[in-house]
Amino acid sequence: MANFYTDHPEIKFNLESSPLMQRIVELKENGYADKDSFDYAPEDYADAIDSYNRVLEVAGDITANTIFPNSEDVDAEGPHCEDGRVRYASKTYDSRFIPRVCAGETMSMDLTEPDAGSDLQRVMLKATYSETDKCWYLNGVKRFITNGDSDIHLVLAA
Fold first, then answer.
1. Spatial contact of 4 and 60, defined as CB atoms under 8 Å apart
2. Whole-angstrom Cα distance, residue 69 to residue 91?
């Protein structure tokens, strides 16, 4: 699978090599003052950059495999007026979860793990996609799940 972040090392280089980045991150993270109050807060610059990289890898995957394949059609159709209302391009309704949520289905956030709490960097759950079965297999344990009795589960895994 393509990834717009990891496939473009110059982006990571800019994130990690800017002479001002250390100061920018320090200001953004409030001098790392939250590390003693919240188990998920970065402890230092390296910890913060590691978290940023993880988020950008996920965003890069979504961009490469969901947004990009539909972008040309979305741009060509664009939003338009239909029955006196704005209707967005048809392909935007193919981000299969949003219509389900708008129809009233519930979602849960499956994050917390034994020995990791809500610390994303210590998450041990592994997700493996099976091309044969066309589904994800999870190996690990999730504990407290917000709104766990839901129709759609957002599972954070490594």
1. yes
2. 10
Q: What is the largest CA-CA distance in the chain?
A: 54
17 has which bridge partners?
Answer: none
Note the pLDDT tens digit of each residue in 21-68. Answer: 999 999 999 999 999 888 778 999 999 999 899 889 888 998 898 889
Query: Which residue(s) pair with 152 in the sheet?
Result: 107
Q: What is the DSSP string of the chain?
A: ---TTTT-HHHHHHHHH-TTHHHHHHHHTGGGGGGGT-TTS-SSHHHHHHHHHHHHHHHHHHIIIIIHHHHHHHHHH--EEETTEEE--GGGGGSTHHHHHHTT--EEEE--BTTTBT-GGG---EEEEETTTTEEEEES----EET-S-SEEEE---
